[in-house]
Design goal:
single chain, mainly beta, eight-stranded antiparallel sheet, elongated
């Protein structure tokens, strides 16, 4: 759960030794008390570079840098009014068992089309994410 991915499901694939690629899709229902939006849908693609000491996993390092692209659509999901942004984040993985863990990450997103999207927000915004994961 986070911003800009929303409540999401993601997958990651190992490309090289400490490099991974990920895809995610997310959703956030209308919440009148928190903001003025209709149902939101997000699509994201990210690259991860792991660094630092080795974590509980013997083949992956504890910390990572994440670069990615994200698209958020508001119902009725019109592509010409989609909110496109890029993100830069630093995060870490905390393994609770061999296959389960928690990701914590923070950074910023850059709004790529501020004049044409439904959100009408600043060029740069903070980004934060907390994920529970299962490793296969």
């Amino acid at each position: 759960m986070g911003f800009p991915e929303l409540a999401s499901i993601s997958v990651r694939y190992k490309l090289f030794d400490q490099v991974r690629a990920g895809l995610s899709t997310g959703f956030l229902p209308d919440m009148p008390r928190l903001g003025k939006w209709d149902n939101l849908f997000s699509l994201s693609g990210d690259f991860y570079y792991h660094f630092g000491r080795f974590s509980y996993s013997p083949d992956k390092r504890l910390f990572y840098v994440k670069l990615g692209m994200n698209c958020i659509l508001q119902q009725p999901y019109e592509w010409d009014r989609a909110w496109w942004n890029s993100c830069f984040r630093v995060g870490g993985e905390i393994f609770t068992t061999r296959n389960f863990g928690l990701n914590l990450e923070g950074g910023f997103i850059c709004n790529l089309n501020p004049e044409r999207n439904w959100a009408h927000v600043d060029r740069f915004l903070p980004a934060i994410n907390v994920n529970l994961f299962h490793r296969f």
